Amino acid sequence: MGSIYCYNTNGFICQRSYDSSPNPSHFMMHAHDVLEIFIFISGKGSYVVEGNTYSLLPYDILIMRSTEAHKLNISPEEPYERVTIHFSPTLLRKFDNYEHILEPFFHHPLGRLNQYHPSDFSSEHWLSCLNAIETYANANVSIDLFILSNLFALLAELCNAFHNRTDKDIFENSNNVSIEMIDYINKNLYNQISLKEVSTHFFLSQSQTNRIFKKATGSSVWEYILLKRLLVAKQLIQNGETPLKAHNSCGFTDYSSFYRKYKLLFGCSPKDDVNIYRNRPSS
Question: Which CATH class is domain 2-170?
Answer without folding.
Answer: mainly beta
